Amino acid sequence: MEILNFIVFGVLGQASLLVGTISLVGLILQKKSATQVLSGTLKTIVGFVIFGIGAAAASDALTAFQELFTRGFNVKGVLPLAEAVTGMAQTKFPMVIALVMVCGFALNLVVARLTRFKNIFLTGQHNLYLAAMLTILFQYFGMSNTMTVILGSILLAFSAAIYPAIAQKYMRKITGNDEIAIGHYCTIAYALSGWVGEKIGDPNKSTEKLKMPGWLSIFKDYVVSIAATMSIIFYISALAAGQEQVEELAGGMHWLIYPFMKALLFTGGMYVIITGVRMFIGEILPAFLGISEKLIPNSRPALDCPVVFPYAPTAVILGFISAYITGLICMFIFALVGMTIIIPVAGPYFFIGGTAGVFGNASGGIKGAIAGSALAGLLIAVGPAVMYNVCDSVGLVGTCFPETDFNFLGYIIYTIGNIIS
Fold this sequence. Notes:
This protein has 421 residues and is mainly alpha-helical. 75% of the residues lie in helices and 4% in strands. It contains 15 helices and 6 strands. The protein has helices at 2-11, 15-29, 34-73, 82-92, 94-114, 124-140, 145-166, 168-175, 187-200, 222-241, 243-250, 258-295, 313-337, 346-393, 404-420, and strands at 77-80, 119-121, 181-182, 300-303, 341-342, 399-400. The strands form 2 sheets. Strands 5-1-6 form a 3-stranded parallel beta sheet. Helix 13 (313-337) packs parallel to helix 14. The longest helix is centred in the C-terminal third of the chain and has 48 residues, at 346-393. The two termini are 39 Å apart.
């Protein structure tokens, strides 16, 4: 009985130890050396622990921002950041999210083996974010942890195999071959960007013939872009709230320093989250990949969005600017009509908008890059606005997922769930 309690409430009750156990088993099955097994297992566990530390820091900063924004503008301001909402969800449902992610990735290999969808999704952090989104939705409808893990794993597996196929037509235009797929859960936006480019543009008039100011390259640095954006947003909210309100929240800190420190705390939390995620994902994925290479012939790796950046770097910058301007316009429109305000954060708008720019450019040149990324900017503003009430209902206040694929799948589950309810 004591052994059972140790396994269920000790190992399985700690998400970091659960993920570490999966890594341990995978490495042993691959007949790795004892040193490699020990190193891989410990790095997986430590990476997950680091992720939790960053989540706590980011959550604290988000709570402060939410209070400032609400007092200053008397409205809800939502930051669409997958890292932030996943970090907050991880503090509430750590074991369930870990199981959905790990089991879902394992099933992705099965789906790729048995169906014509041969994509193996290797952007591990995005599988983690999808696992969090699915867990949030099923918990919203009061589903048991067991059913959440079962249904969540199945949906994640099929999403990982099928979503990359949606944009593969335009991925071939970008790379010139069919060897890799896009492993970033915004494929709906990327496919639509490519489609719009076909309709309005000319691929021969590429963005790479444009000259852009060198200083715009600063937005390629995730830390700098988040810190700058969040500092501006925090100060706008603090100035709107006024000195008295900020001092009430600052706890003795100077009211003009408080927003800056909270912005840096948020940025630091995001960096720690990303570092932790990359660390434990980098260790746990090889435990599965060695097996998949032997069992799944003709499989195609689905890789993170920066894999397309070298093909059209100017389109990346142009796409970011176009998407971000669209996000700002949506923010003001949402405020005017009384909707939940979605604040465009430079990080996701750079990576999603920039990638959409590359897809639009591949099929429609400059016009395709601008129009396609603008459409992507619209989608990653509207999607979180529609789905935010689900996050809010389970206590994940102030943030939501910007990814189009998450919100499309989430809205379908949400609609079906409400009908059944």
